[in-house]
Amino acid sequence: MLWRTRGAELLDRIGPAIVQTHSAGGPFGFIVANERPLLVKALVTFEGGAGPVLGPNNTPNPMPNVKGVPMMYLTAEHSGRTNGPAIVAALRQSGALAEHIALKDRGITGNGHFAMVETNRKDVFEVIRGWIESTIPPTGPASRQTARG
User: Fold this and answer.
1) Over the stretch 104-129, which tens digit does the pLDDT of each residue have?
2) Which of the 8 DSSP states describes residue 65?
3) Among candidates 8, 50, 49, 21, which has minimal Cα distance to 128?
4) Element housing 88 (H / E)
5) Per-residue pLDDT tens for 58-77?
6) CA-to-CA distance for 113 and 88, rounded, in angstroms?
7) What's the pTM value of the predicted model, to 2 decimals?
8) Residue 93: φ, ψ to 5°
9) DSSP states of 26-42 as a string?
10) How many other β-carbons are positioned within 10 Å of the β-carbon of residue 42?
11) Nearest partner of 30 among 54, 59, 13, 14, judged by Cα
């Protein structure tokens, strides 16, 4: 409940954002995306916990508000995290534009659960950056001005 209310309050204050989570913080992103879908431009989850997305025996939990929200679920080769496809399938059932990306499928091998601090972290970042840039339309002063009227 705290993540739901505080995450929603944060986005209400700062406006639309790309939310990025890791590991045990993963549920925060899913909860906030469901609570404020119009303010989550995209969700990037690096091996995040499945808490609100999957129930017992990997049963999908409906998240009705995430429909149309772009989401990336990223996994590393040697982390032991194997439920990425099940999480993505559950998110898709709720209508999210979810995608599982395995680093090894992008030629980035050898990483564990903390790939963001390993020696090839820049390569990992480029996968995330590339996905964001290909998923979210660019914005600039002209588009902000138009949005204001």
Assistant:
1) 999 999 999 999 899 999 999 999 99
2) G
3) 21
4) helix 84-93
5) 899 999 999 999 999 999 99
6) 18
7) 0.89
8) -60, -30
9) HHHHHHHHHH-GGGEEE
10) 20
11) 54
